[in-house]
Structure formats: C-alpha cells, structure tokens
Amino acid sequence: MDPEFRTYLDDQRRHFDVVAEAMRSQVQLVAEGVGTLGSRLDRLEENLREEILRSQREFSAMIRFRMQSLNEGFRGWKRGITNWKSEFEG
C-alpha cells in the first residue's frame, strides 16, 4: 500500500476515533439528563398525587359539613311546620 495513502487512512481513523469519543460523551450526557428528568417526573407525580388526595379530603369534609348544615336546617324547618300545623289544627 502506498505510504501516503496509509498515512491518510491513519489520519482518518484517528479523526473518526476522536469524533466517536465526543459523540459517546454527548450520549452519556443525554442519558444522565434523561435519568435526572425521570427522577424529577417521579417526584412531581408523587407531589401531585398527594395534592390531589389532600384536596379530595378537604372537599369531602366541606361537603359533609354543608350537608349536615342543610339537614339541620331542614329538620328545623320541618319542626316549625309541624308546630305551625299543630297550632293551626289545635
């Protein structure tokens, strides 16, 4: 093989090795970023789950309280009608 051509091939091989190593490093950085992003998404998901459950408990408590108030009001209204009816009939 021609020594000049051999030198050219060797140079190309070294250049390819340098480019391949740089790409390997960049792929490693992307992989680490994806791993970090996955961890952040997991934490976000857990925080959202906790917030949704907390909001659901608060909303349920609010509805129970309001329903109790309405029931008490209805019972008071019913007693008033019963008393009025007794007075009217009696």
List its salient traits.
90 residues, mainly alpha
In short:
The protein has 90 residues and is an all-alpha fold. It is built from one helix and no strands.
Describe the structure.
With 90 residues, this protein is mainly α. The chain has 1 helix and no strands. It has one helix at residues 3-89. The chain is rod-shaped, with a radius of gyration of 38 Å. The mean pLDDT is 93.
- Rg for CA atoms: 38 Å
Order of helices and strands: H
Mean pLDDT: 93
Distance between the termini: 127 Å
Instruction: State the major sheet.
Output: none
The number of distinct helices, counting runs of at least 4 residues, comes to 1
Helix content, binned percent: over 70%
User: Which band does the percent of strand residues land in?
Assistant: under 5%
What is the molecular shape? rod-shaped
Number of strands: 0
Structural class by helix and strand composition: mainly alpha
Low-confidence stretches: none
